[in-house]
Every structure is written in C-alpha cells, then in structure tokens.
Amino acid sequence: MGLKALAGAEVAGKLATALPGAVTESGAASITVDSKALASVMRVLKESPEFEFNYLNSVTAADYIEYFEVVYHLTSMKKKQTLTVKVKVSGRENPRVPSVTHLWQGADYQEREVYDLMGIHFDGHPNLKRIALWEGFKGHPLRRDFL
Amino acid sequence: MPAYDQLILPYSSADADIEEGKLIEDLIARSRSPIPDPDAWLSGGPRAGIVLTTVDQALGWARSRSLWPMLFGLACCAFEMMAAAGNRWDISRFGMEIFRPSPRQADMMIVAGTLTWKMAPAVRRLYDQMAEPKWVLAMGACAISGGTFSESYAVVPGVNRVIPVDVYVPGCPPRPEGLYYGLMELHQKIQKADSLKGKLHLPRLD
Question: Which of chain B's residues have a Cβ under 8 Å away from the Cβ of A127?
C-alpha cells in the first residue's frame, strides 16, 4: 500500500506530447517546469486520468542566490503515486509564479507563507499577504541575503 | 461546489493587519532595553520591633498561599506547567490549582515558553488587564532571554522587554520541580514585599 514515486523522465515523456517544451529538467522523482508553463502543467497533472494528482502535500521554496526554486509535492490518492514539481524563478526584486489555489485550495496558506518568508509573488492568489509575520515587517527572512 | 473565488473566506481586513503591524513595530521600538525587575523588597530586611503580626505579613501570607495563575502556555514549557498542575506534582498543594482563563481573575502570569513579537502585544495587554498586586514568572530559557532564538527577527529576547518579571526559572524546559522552586521563591518574595510600595507603572499600550 506504499506510495510510489514517479520517475521524472517518465512524467516528462508523458507531458511532452501535450505540452512540448514545458518540462526543462527531470530528476529521479521530480520534474523542473518552465514558469510560464506551470499553470497548464499543474492542470494536466491534476485533471488528466493518467496522473490524477488530487492532493497537494506542500508548497515550499528554496533560495539558490542566482534563482529561487518553488517546490510542489503532489500525491495521487487514487493511483498511490507521488511527484515533485519544481519551478525556477529568477530575479530578486519581483519573482513571480502563477498561483495554484484554483486547483488545490490547500495551497492558499502555503503560498502565503512562501510569499511572507521568501518574497515570491503568486499571481492569481485571492489573498496574498503576510501570514506569520506582521504587516510592515522589512524584508523576507528566509532569503539568503536577509541581514 | 462553488468556484474558489466565490467562497466567503474568513479573511481579516487589510486595515486591521496594518493596524496590528503598527502596534508591533511600535512595541519593538519601545522595547530596546529590559524593564527592571521589581526588587524594592530586597533592601528591606526583616521587620524589627513588632512582635504582633502586621497587616502586611497577614496579607503576604494570604496572597502567597492563594495565587491564581493565568492560563498562559506559549510553547513546550507549557507541557511542564500542565504536568505541574496535574495530579502527580499537584499544584493545588500551593492553593493555586485554579488556572484562570481571564486576566481579571488572576494574580500571577507564568510565561511558559517562547514569546514572539507578534504575540507580545497580547501578553502586554493581558498583563495590563490583571489587577494589582500581580506577579510574573518567566519559565524557561526562551522566556528569560529568548533562549536559542534570542537573535531571531521574530522572537522577543526575554519577556522582561515587554513586562516586568519577578522570578526567572531556567531550564529548557524546566521540570515541574524547577517550576515549584520558582513558585516557592515567589512566595517568599510576596511575603517580604511591602503591600503598598514598589508598583511599576508602564506606559499604556494602545
């Protein structure tokens, strides 16, 4: 009954026909997606009968100085499969990625947390504001250049 | 199922958030240095010349044996405080088994755990709402100095930045025995204290 982690290359192959050029890299259990194609990739991953990722475990982000990486962990309850989706976002001033709250409501607070601590904007989020820190706090504390 | 953006979600208004942020920034700006500990009682020494029980002694005895603590668990120290209140350590031996959920019915505040700046205005407001005489016990490393989080952007480096502290109980977290030692020290302090002197007036927080 364990969950099976899908291989990145396998998912990339399945996505290549519907969305050519969307997946830029594929790892052992992850795919890296172009930020412009994220919304459509996520819709396919949730809705197509091949994947049916109906549960979003978490949204998080990492700061690699040259770029930010937003990481989504997906699980399909029906197919007992998991996948990690990553998006690279460049630019420290105004990094932006599309929100996935319209697909998974659970992304709401987690995207707010990423926005609060990393300063990544989620386009289309219904209520993007700080969640843990207070209004007026200067900076985004989980960034590598904070302090 | 209605579309996501049609759902009515319990979002607070932006104005309330900005107001809260201003309050916190204001409190941080005003809390650069610790509030001095109430220690006027230390210079007094034992009262001499009167053999009969003074009013102060009677009051001190009554107060120290009927402390009602405020229900205030912030982090993992709260579990040790709950254990202290439970039947194994049994805080009712000290006449203080009634943890009050209202500051207006409490005599002392056990600040059990890490205090963040976002929580700090609430702590200060609850302290202000407690009736005199009132005492504060800082429980654990975080409440004393911020502990391992003392350099954090989000943690108050010691609750004595926000409210005056009478007794510090070190430990991470302190065991119930440690908390009891602190409480017994507080009992002695209350008995020595002059009931009419040594009140500290803090500026109002609005």
Answer: 9, 11
Query: Tokens 């977290």, residue?
Result: B173
Residues in chain B with CB shorter than 8 Å from the CB of A136 are 18, 21-22, 24-25
Q: Where are the domains of chain A?
A: 4-95
CB atoms A134 and B118 under 8 Å: yes
Encoding tokens for residue B93?
């031996």
The CA distance from A132 to the nearest CA of chain B, in Å, is: 8
More confident residue, B199 or A77: A77
Rounded Cα–Cα distance for residues B37 and A75 (Å): 54
The fold for domain B69-190 equals: Rossmann fold (3.40.50)
Do residues B170 and B139 make contact, with C-beta atoms less than 8 angstroms apart? no
* Beta strand pairing call for A81-90 and A96-98: unpaired
ipTM of the complex: 0.77
Q: Contact B11/A127, CB-based, under 8 Å?
A: yes
Q: How far is the C-alpha of B99 from the C-alpha of A125, rounded, in Å?
A: 42
Contact B156, B117 (CB under 8 A): yes
Q: Which residues 74-113 of chain A have a CB within 8 Å of chain B? A: 101-102, 105
pLDDT at B1 over 50: no
Give residue limits of the domains in chain B: 69-190
CB pairs under 8 A between A and B: 40
Average pLDDT over residues A51-64: 94
Residue B2: closest C-alpha in chain A: A102
As its CATH architecture, domain A4-95 has: 2-Layer Sandwich (3.30)
pLDDT tens-place string over residues B194-204: 655 555 666 66
